[in-house]
Specification:
CATH superfamily: Vaccinia Virus protein VP39
Number of strands: 11
Helix content: 25-40%
Largest sheet: 7 strands, mixed
Number of domains: 1
Strand order of the largest sheet: 5-4-3-6-7-11-10
Radius of gyration: 17 Å
Bound molecules: S-adenosylmethionine
Strand content: 25-35%
Structural class: alpha/beta
Length: 245
Amino acid sequence: MGACRHGDDGAGRPWARVVAGTTAPVDELQSCAVTESPSYLTATAEAYDAMAVRYAEFVRNYLDGQPLDRATLAAFADFVRTAGAGPVLEVGCGPGHLTAHLQKLGLDASGVDLSPVMIDLAREAHPDLRFQVGSMDALDLADGQLGGILSWYSIIHTPPHELPPYFAEFRRLLAPGGYLLLGFFESEGEPVTAFDHKVTPAYRWPIDDLAELARKEQFVEVGRTLRAPQEGERFRQGHLLMRRQ
Ligand SMILES: C[S@@+](CC[C@H](N)C(=O)[O-])C[C@H]1O[C@@H](n2cnc3c(N)ncnc32)[C@H](O)[C@@H]1O
């Protein structure tokens, strides 16, 4: 039986849906039957479906020019391997290049993404790895199954008021002692700020605000990186590494 998650799409339209792996009162579940997924998820999936081939080409060699990002991912992999708490899921994996990178770093890695076209590309490029279509806030996986979750620039499209349940889902999926690594655009002294991302609207976050959302879901901060934008990038980039208690 799944729990029921409610929200609104930012324009006053309510939604609710079943989240696998936990229990909920029957009256809550009944209300799930009459509503739909939030429209921002549909819009995000459609936008990435349309741009997937160009996006995959754009990010193909991205890690080559990013020593700090490689170091952060390597540290995450090191912590996860040492904890030995289970496999790793990249949520919002796009064309799967970072899932494959994590596998090369010695992890048992798989990926999930909203966009079916992205998942087709990921499967084609990395036929030895597992990729599924799904939304990271409502995954059909058992509680405590994962040793690590990587969300690399994938919570950026979630409207801020919808984000807290994402951290609850990350907590549910991670085993105690598992690790969460977030990559995102940082807001440089501003509050959470919408910006005109090339694919679909996105948000830049104060790193402290994301750390606080995670803290409320039993995550403790392990470390953080803020790096300056490189050539072709517009914003400072934040990386936040947290451990589930
Ligand atoms: C900017 S891309 C990042 C892709 C990849 N992680 C990378 O670093 O290149 C954002 C990805 O997150 C996915 N995404 C956004 N919201 C999602 C959600 N709720 N669940 C799963 N995937 C999501 C999009 O479909 C898209 O592929």
